């Protein structure tokens, strides 16, 4: 079974309140076995408009990745993120071949 990945590109508008997002999201990440592959850090922009923060999170499957996002706990965190950051998020199926 192919793994599932969240790819998030984020511009944080309120760094102090963003910490509340991170704290609120943590239980959902633990519950669904999230593994952070990239979490911020320097970026080399090649094409397009860069964002200030880029995150890749690995899950056991696309289904687990989607279940985490849809969970009540993560949706509480997402409500905070929507207030304090501009972002794009997608789930990508990993290559299993």
Describe this structure in words.
- The protein starts with a strand and ends with a strand.
- The protein is globular, with a radius of gyration of 13 Å.
- The relative contact order is 0.37.
- The chain contains three helices and four strands; from the N terminus they run E-H-E-E-H-H-E.
- Helices cover 40% and strands 31% of the residues.
- By secondary structure, the chain is an alpha+beta fold.
- A four-stranded antiparallel beta sheet has the order 2-3-1-4.
- The protein has a single domain, classed as Alpha-Beta Plaits (2-Layer Sandwich), CATH 3.30.70.
- Helix 1 runs antiparallel to helix 3.
Derived from helix and strand composition plus strand pairing, the structural class reads: alpha+beta
**What is the CATH architecture annotation?**
2-Layer Sandwich
Q: Which word captures the global form?
A: globular
Radius of gyration, whole Å: 13 Å
Largest sheet entry: 4 strands, antiparallel
Strand percentage lies at 25-35%
CATH topology: Alpha-Beta Plaits
Question: Helix fraction?
Answer: 40-55%
Say how many strands there are.
Answer: 4
Question: What would a concise description of this structure say?
Answer:
Helices cover 40% and strands 31% of the residues. The protein is α+β, with helices and mostly antiparallel strands and 97 residues long.
């Amino acid at each position: 079974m192919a793994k599932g990945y969240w790819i998030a590109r984020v511009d944080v508008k309120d760094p102090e309140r963003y910490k509340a997002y991170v704290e609120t999201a943590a239980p959902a990440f633990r519950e669904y076995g999230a593994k952070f592959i990239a979490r911020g850090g320097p970026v080399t922009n090649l094409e397009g408009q860069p964002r200030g923060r880029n995150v890749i999170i690995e899950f056991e499957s696309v289904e687990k990745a989607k279940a985490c996002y849809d969970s009540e706990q993560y949706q509480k965190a997402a409500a905070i993120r929507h207030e304090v950051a501009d972002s794009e998020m997608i789930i990508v199926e990993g290559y299993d071949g």
